[in-house]
């Protein structure tokens, strides 16, 4: 026999209930919609962090979200190239990829990194399917520059395979390898892949997991972390070199996705415990949110699943925008500061 005083710490149950109540309106607003998650940084290479993030993604799937994961694997590729005594060279932040290195990139991304992520997701059930961007020509690219070798610039996304997997309730895990217009293979930037895929499949959101808390106006000043900004402000920061080099592909990808109709783009710290859930399912979030200046027409503009449709019908029938902790929180467009 166990006594309640020993198994139920005072206040713990109430705190958990408050968290669930706060999350409810955001769950209602995102269920049935597709979210592209670009997974990278330390959260991908640290085994414990990887397990935690994968569990959070599965939870999103359980509450009705359709996650699509995109990943690269820069650290693993560099380690493999050094082990094989292949030269590691970068130009303008991009890896020079010889034909020999391209073979290794494919092996590392699909044979190691992708399968590790699939395995971590499938610890919770048979949800995940590993996909190379070259499979069914999901990602097609052309050579970005002769100096970079087999580094590609994305020319198009073919969505049928991704649509089929999402509609069948699987979680696609997409490695950033592209099929070349010339019939070969290309190494493509995973940040840009995420934006292109989000735009092509009509995703509701695109989220970038990285190693910093979000976008800073001045990275040296930690008080300059930006909570939210418009696509025009993001463009200004890119054009005027206000952001760090590593953040530029993420911002460009966010801009591409938003201009294509994606509702919002997020940059968050994947090292922060449950940052994905905190960003998507709470009122304040934990990272940087980017949005267009015309949000109202986009809300609920994406196809909904059966369960999500019932939630929406209930909300419309009641004449309310949904209920939150204050009793007034409704459409995501009303999210304070986010």
Parts with pLDDT < 50 across at least 5 consecutive residues: 295-304, 318-337
Mean pLDDT score: 84
Beta-strand residue fraction: 15-25%
- Structural class, by secondary structure, is alpha/beta
What does the secondary structure layout of this molecule look like, with pairings?
Layout: H1 4-7, H2 12-30, E1 34-39, H3 42-45, H4 47-62, E2 66-71, H5 74-83, E3 90-91, E4 94-95, H6 99-121, E5 128-132, E6 139-143, E7 152-157, H7 160-167, E8 171-175, E9 177-180, E10 185-187, H8 190-201, E11 205-210, E12 228-230, H9 231-239, H10 248-259, E13 264-269, H11 275-281, E14 288-291, H12 306-317
Parallel strand pairs: 1-2, 1-11, 2-8, 5-8, 6-9, 11-13, 12-14
Antiparallel strand pairs: 3-4, 6-7, 9-10, 13-14
Helix pairs in contact: 5-6, 8-10, 9-10
